[in-house]
Amino acid sequence: MREHDTMAGEDRFREWMQDTPARLDVGRTGTRPLTREMLKLRLDHAEAVDAVYGVVKEETLAEFDLFTVETRYRDKEHYLLVPDSGRVLTEASEKELGERCIHRPQVQIVVSDGLSAKAIDDNLADVLPALRDSLAANGLQEGTPFFVKGGRVGVMDDIGRVLAPEVLVLLIGERPGLVTASSMSAYMCYRPAPGRKDSDRMVISNIHASGTPPIEAGAHIGTLLRKMVEQQASGVKLIV
């Protein structure tokens, strides 16, 4: 390979490094990673573990007046080992939703820790106000928002069974990785109910400061919800 081709290839590689948070060209000392890279890896891993086992701050929920209900997750270890436990509400929580929430709302907003409490703490303050502004701009009415502790995506269907919303959006913490531990997803479904498939849902993922901007995501969610209401569909059936 000619020298200028080699240099051009190196320049392109450096550009790629600027465009991705992936670990590229981290360097070695013999067969071992550089000390600074090893320490950074351990730090990122520790942050991911903390995100999974963390708890959403009370002040985060209080800021938006979100009351808390729970799934049958029992504890974090059970939640991780038995995913179905996070898809069904407890009987007490089902009763509380029935007493405190608007039934058959046009738009039901639900927040859940999922696999990253940090995602909620870091992003909710930007996503939720933007989403509410977008709902108003799109002429949509919000129901009674609340927080689900120990939730999985499938809890949308159980909530749909209880409250029967026209559309539901679940803001939930994503599984953390070694790039970020604060990524949020927004799952949406038209008339969620038991038996819904993954193909009936749609999602905006990677919502965080270095991914999909939280304010932009909130605005876009409102637009998608309007289309879902207009077309009476979601997931692969929605024409976007």
Q: Can you name the CATH architecture?
A: 3-Layer(aba) Sandwich
Structural class comes to: alpha/beta
CATH class: Alpha Beta
- Low-pLDDT ranges: none
Q: Quick check: average pLDDT?
A: 90
Describe this structure in words.
The chain is α/β, with parallel strands linked by helices and 240 residues long. The chain has 8 helices and 8 strands; from the N terminus they run αββααβααβαβαβββα. The chain has a single domain, classed as Ethanolamine ammonia-lyase light chain (EutC) (Rossmann fold, 3-Layer(aba) Sandwich), CATH 3.40.50.11240. A 6-stranded mixed beta sheet has the order 3-5-4-6-7-8, with helices on both faces. The chain has a two-stranded antiparallel sheet with strand order 1-2. Strand 4, helix 6 and strand 5 form a beta-alpha-beta unit. Helix 6 crosses helix 8. The mean pLDDT is 90.
Describe the structure concisely:
The protein has 240 residues and is α/β, with parallel strands linked by helices.
Note the main attributes of this structure.
Rossmann fold, single chain, six-stranded mixed beta sheet, 44% helix, 240 residues
List the helices and strands and how they pair.
Layout: H1 3-19, E1 28-29, E2 32-33, H2 35-53, H3 58-63, E3 67-70, H4 76-81, H5 91-100, E4 107-112, H6 117-137, E5 146-149, H7 155-163, E6 167-173, E7 184-190, E8 201-207, H8 214-231
